[in-house]
C-alpha cells in the first residue's frame, strides 16, 4: 500500500524543544508507505523560535500566523495549508508531540484499507487531572446525545482524513472556531461519514518547557485553572451555536460519495 503524497499538518505554539524530533520520528515511521510526505506547521506566533527549528528542512513548511489565536484557529489554518498542497491523505496532529511515530502507519492503513473518510486516534493512557476528565466526559455525553451514538475521544488531535471529506468539514466550520475537532466529530457522525477508531498511545508532551500548555497550572489541590473554566464556557457556547441548536449551520452538512468507490 502506497500513498503518493501524505500531508501532515500541525498547530504549534512554543514547541521549539520537541517538534523537530517529533517530525523526524513521524517521517521515519511513514517512509515505507508513502511516495512523499510534506509537513505543514501553523506557528501560532511562538516566542521560542519554533519556526527556526525547521530552517533548511526541505519537507517542512512553516506558516507563521498573523496573530496568536489559540489551538482551534491554528489547527484550522494548518489543515488549510495541508489541503492546498493537494495530498492524497492528510493527518492532523498537535505539535506538542503527544503521540508515537509508530502509530501513524497504523492510522494510515486504517484510512486506506478500511475505506474510511476519517480515522480518529483514540488516546490510551492519558493522565489528565480530574477536572479535565469531568469536562471530557460532559462533552462526550452532550455530543453522544446529539450524534445519536457515543463518539470515543471527541476532541482527539490525531486524525487522518481523505482530503475530499476534510474539505467538506473545513468549508463548514468558521476559521476562528475554538474547538473545530468537536464540530468535526459531531458533523462526521451526523452526516454519515465512514469513521474508524484506532487506539493509540498518548504520551507526555515533548520538550522540557510547559509554556505550550493551553491551560496553565491548577492551584494547590488542582482546581481547574481559570483559563480552562473560561475556555470551557465559551467553547460550549460555540458548540451550541454552530453544531447543536436547531438551526445550527453544521446540521446542514452532508457527505459526498467519493469518486470511483
Ligand atoms: N498553549 C497554546 N497552545 C497552542 C496555541 N496555539 C496553538 N497551540 C498548540 O495546540 C496544541 C495543544 O495544546 P495543549 O496545551 O497540548 O492542549 P491539550 O492537548 O488540550 O492539553 P494537554 O492534554 O495538557 O496536552 C499544542 O500542540 C500547541 O502547540 C496557543 O495559543 N497556546
Ligand atoms: Mg497536548
List the helices and strands and how they pair.
Layout: E1 3-12, H1 16-30, E2 34-43, E3 60-64, H2 71-84, E4 89-92, H3 103-113, E5 118-124, H4 130-147, E6 159-161, H5 163-172, H6 180-190, E7 195-201, H7 226-244
Parallel strand pairs: 1-2, 1-4, 2-3, 5-7
Antiparallel strand pairs: 4-6, 5-6
The structure holds guanosine-5'-triphosphate and magnesium ion.
What key phrases describe this protein's structure?
261 residues, alpha/beta, Spore Coat Polysaccharide Biosynthesis Protein SpsA, Chain A, 38% helix, binds guanosine-5'-triphosphate, binds magnesium ion
Tally of discrete structural domains? 1
Oligomer state equals: single chain
CATH H level, superfamily name = Spore Coat Polysaccharide Biosynthesis Protein SpsA, Chain A
Percentage of residues assigned to helices: 25-40%
Query: In one word, what is the shape?
Result: globular
Strand count: 7
Residue ranges: pLDDT <50 for 5 or more in a row?
A: 217-221
Q: Under the CATH scheme, which architecture would be assigned?
A: Alpha-Beta Complex
**Averaged pLDDT:** 92
Which CATH class is shown?
Alpha Beta
Q: Describe the largest sheet.
A: 7 strands, mixed
Count every helix, treating DSSP H or I runs of 4 or more residues as helices.
7
Instruction: Classify the beta-strand content into a percent band.
Output: 15-25%
CATH topology heading: Spore Coat Polysaccharide Biosynthesis Protein SpsA, Chain A
